[in-house]
Amino acid sequence: MGKYRRNRINEEMQKELMNILRTVKDPRVQDAFVSVTAVDATPDLKYAKIYYSALQGEEKELKAGFKAATGYIRRELARTLNLRMTPELTFLRDNSITYGAHISTILNNLEISEPTPEETDEQP
Questions:
Q1: What angle do CA 8, 15, 87 make, to 5 degrees?
Q2: Which helix (H) or strand (E) holds 91?
Q3: For residues 96 and 75, what is the distance between their CA atoms, to the nearest angstrom?
Q4: How far is Cα of residue 108 from the mean position of the Cα atoms in its chain?
Q5: Phi, psi dihedral angles at 66 (to 5 degrees)
Q6: Of 44, 36, 54, 31, nearest to 90 (Cα)?
Q7: pLDDT tens, 51-89?
Q8: CB-based contacts of 95: which residues, under 8 Å, 6+ apart?
Q9: CATH architecture of the domain formed by 3-110
């Protein structure tokens, strides 16, 4: 299977997971405002890593909620995607959004001073 096809499947799984997560009735997942940031399926489509970010909720509670809802999520994914084999799902927290916000605040707080005329004359 080509990488292009796997990328298309990853994107389609991400879209469908966003729709499915809205219907999960587990309050640990429903109240956390979960967003799927990426999906990475193995080449044989047996396993998939689901990267998510959440605005609220504790890490342990979210993991427990995802573990409890994995069967439902996988069944709905199989129903909507129509793949030969539905991958086993592993949910991993994606910290790239918080990391990006942290870098943004650091860059915004930098103080850049203008070079003095003496410093510009010394450069070759």
A1: 65
A2: strand 88-93
A3: 29
A4: 25
A5: -65, -40
A6: 36
A7: 998 888 888 999 999 999 999 999 999 999 888 889 999
A8: 53
A9: 2-Layer Sandwich (3.30)
